[in-house]
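Quick log. Single chain, no ligands specified.
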Amino acid sequence: MNEARTRWTALGVLATGSLMTILDGSIVTVAMPAIQADLGFSPPALSWVVNAYLIAFGSLLLLAGRLGDLIGRKWMFLAGTAVFTAASLLAGAATTPALLIAARFLQGVGSALAVAVSLGILVTLFTAPGERARAIAVFSFTGAAGAAIGQVLGGVLTDALSWHWIFLINLPIGLATIALGRRTLPAEPGLGRRAGADVLGAGLVTAGLVVGIYTVVNVSSYGAGRVVGQFALAAALLAGFAVRQATARDPLVPPRVLRAPGVAVANLVQVLTLAACFAFQVLVTLYLQNVLGYDALRTGLAMLPAAVAIGAVSLGLAARLNARFGERRMLLVGLVSLFGTLALLVRVPVHASYAVDVLPVMLLAAGFGLVLPALASLAMSGARPDDAGLVSGVFNTTQQIGMALGVAVLSTLAAARTDGLLAAGRDAAFALTSGYRLAFGVGAGLVALAFLTTLALLKPAVRPAIEPAPEFIKSV
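-> predicted structure:
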């Protein structure tokens, strides 16, 4: 296998590993009713099938990224994939709620170890600007379209086989990823623990993220006093982490990482954008099922055009457009498209026609295929070879924070609006639709804020022309 083919095969390994974990996050949502009926989950406990995964995943990304730099990113990726694969077997065989929740937590740990270093490996594999742009576009497709694909696959597997197979399907994929990864991923040595084993900093940031994400995913279940208290604790822990990074000899996150041009802005824009877009995915699914009466399979198929549109843009156009016009311009174009997506949803009716009211929204979501590759390129622009895993971990951490905040805040707003209308005597379909409309309107506001942030804080940069693609990937 020649060098170029090996690098693109390694990219396939990274993308497959990322896709597997992203699919797992969305594939579960359509199978939740079947899981509840089979294992006897109470409604409050059922949410922990998702929450256990999110808490472990989101809290460990930053630490995992730095550990990858210290002990070797290849081995961190392979270890994470192995943990995730083993946990998938445990989840697929679960016979009690407690066992499934424990398996989901372990899946989150494995996902964090693997995903945190993936972009770090990618940017060391592809150093030429044009090749890197194409590689990031391929990798970003897994994040941009993977969630929608997961909903389709989850509906098919749950209806045709059983919910167990949404986890068991990971076994052959995980084993193949490990086998190919051992052969193709670069085995660059880590820096060693002496290069930056900031144990106190790692403890502070991990604890702060655990408390913060735990509070976010449970915000609708707690009173205002408890929410404020837990957020204050999370803020104190993260403030302690910031002080530690400014004073430590070998900080976990060197300040120069966030001072690199575009990195801090890209991560801030990502939080705002993902908060709106992940909530869009969740709330549109609920609208299709709770208002229009779609089943799991039909819901997944209804979301499929969004995945196809996003994939077509991210795989076919994003790299060339970024190289031709620059990431900043394409990010702005993508954000305009996403604003239009959410703005259209603000007027979604109770009795909707899929072709007229839903399909145009799915197609307009193609703008996400421009946004995520541009953000990934900007966020990794300041990465040095010795801290690429850390920068990758920061990027993935802000991604998870945005997703968790978006779902928690917008879902809570939608539920409050719905409850108020039900209490006023309005029918359920109208009340639900009105709640979703409010959430979509707030999401559109978040995207508008992301656009203004990009316009004001991200400086234009001259991009080099893209070089011709290798023959091996011209078909991608």
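The chain has two domains: 3-184+248-457, 201-247.
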